[in-house]
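hey so i finally got around to running the thing on that chain from the lab meeting. sorry it took forever, my laptop kept dying and i had to restart like 3 times. anyway pasting the input first so we r on the same page abt which one it is
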Amino acid sequence: MNDIRESYRLFGLRISSDIRLPELQPFSADEPGDVEIRRGPVPADGTEVGPKMGPFSHAAENALWLRVPGVARYLIRDGGKLIYQPEGDIDEDSVRVFMLGTCIGALLAQRGHLVLHGNVFEVGGGCAVCVGSSGAGKSTLAARMLQRGHRIIADDVCPVDLNGRAIPGISRLKLWQDTARRLEIDTAALRRIRPNIAKFEMPLGDAFRAEPAPIRAIYVLTPWNQDRFTIADMSGIAKFQALRANSYRFRFLKGMQLGPRHFRQCRTLAADVPVAQVFRPRLGFDIDGLVDLILADLAGRGAVS
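ok and heres what got predicted. didnt touch it at all, straight out
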């Protein structure tokens, strides 16, 4: 067991941890946190926790067992405990990557949040959420919005509260080397999120919004084989399906018996917030054209002053 105990804030939660989390904001704690992260024994076989959800995951009511081969096993329970057991002589950076991604996403879902898989940037007094499949351009879009003066609220993991607000995440953007190169961002001074992986952590500093923001619109980024942009509002069941498809690690929710609540949350958000599909050329990624399109659409909705 580690002999350190440090306190942090993340997604509005007070976190007590025995592994250092330099990505997070520290704070002085005079009382127990909302979430405890500690190193401890995690079953080698997830069947002790519940039914199999995937090759390396098992789930039961408010519990998720996850194994990342060669990195660690994790057990997330009741929205308040995250136990990890490293495998072999693995570095802490690698342990933290999955801890602050999939594990914290599951924990937030256990605590009652609808968690979207996307990036969030501030616009006007609110924000826009951009979701989409891997490679759709979410991180590139967020980084360009940052360069054009918009503060970032969340990267990758985006929980939504009961009032339809995006809850601030980690004060950073994670960027692949090719994305950084396209946007002329120098990665020489940036730390890799894991050794030997060309993905970097860019601190946001004052460009991070630390307060929740009402969601003005949700955009589903969709590459296609045409050479033009287009944007189309979604309606009815299509909005619900888009939110469901872009929920963070959706496959785990049913196993944790969170499906009915997730259904209600998607239905409520779909009724309250515009959802639009944004088609962008698969080749020749014109990032400024995409930014201009989205900002113009937000202005048309009265979200940009």
